[in-house]
Amino acid sequence: MQFTVAIDGPAAAGKGTISKAVAAAFGFAHLDTGLLYRAVGAKTLDGMDAVTAAETLDPVDLENDALRTSAVAQAASKVAVIPEVRSALIAFQQSFARRTGGAVLDGRDIGTVICPDADVKLFVTASAECRAERRFLELSSKNPETTREQVLADVIARDKRDSERATAPLKPADDAVMIDTSDMSIDEAIKAACDAINAAR
Ligand code: C5P
């Protein structure tokens, strides 16, 4: 059985949490496609050319905790504007989406570019302030020097770069189900996603 769930949305809207929960609930495999761009971004911080990094990316590169920092997130959104970087990563994502047993992919362009024929498309969003607050709580527990202002500025800068780029900008697919998590608990957001998937099965 092939069944593809595409989950897109801006940073810290709850995509990751929802994707993991949905994958566990339905027994689907999960790919966080942001990790691909983070892994390429991290290699550029080490001095590698972005296109070379994307063309030689190994799935093992994705299993690296150092990909979770804001420096790597910013580097990821910079390499993500390069069309050759994006095209080098398409085949891996599409073959993941076609695996038997079902797949959930989360990112920015899954419903629009990578899997335009996905069985279910969700666009998970929340206000910038709300997303920055969540990211602040997550980052400040690891680094006490993190400030709310800096996190909000980073979120806004990344949103702008992701939405305004020419290739595969962040935007909902025409047929995406919108889930605004600003005033939802995690459980409510997961239920909204599961309901949309059940309706399509
Ligand atoms: O989702 P995450 O915050 O890990 O993504 C890091 C960056 O990778 C995003 O800001 C975005 O620029 C890029 N990205 C993308 N397309 C995807 C997933 C992530 O351009 N499908």
TrEMBL record:
Major subcellular location class: cytoplasm
Gene3D superfamilies per record: P-loop containing nucleotide triphosphate hydrolases (3.40.50.300)
Highest taxon of the lineage: Bacteria
A single Gene Ontology CC term: cytoplasm
Transmembrane portions of the chain: none
Chain residues that bind ATP: G9, P10, A11, A12, A13, G14, K15, G16, T17
Reactions mediated catalytically: dCMP + ATP = dCDP + ADP; CMP + ATP = CDP + ADP
Signal peptide: none
InterPro entries assigned: Cytidylate_kin (IPR003136), Cytidylate_kinase_dom (IPR011994), P-loop_NTPase (IPR027417)
Protein location: Cytoplasm
EC number: 2.7.4.25
Pfam family, any one: Cytidylate_kin
Entry's Gene Ontology BP terms: pyrimidine nucleotide metabolic process
Similarity-based family: Belongs to the cytidylate kinase family. Type 1 subfamily.
Protein name stated in the entry: Cytidylate kinase
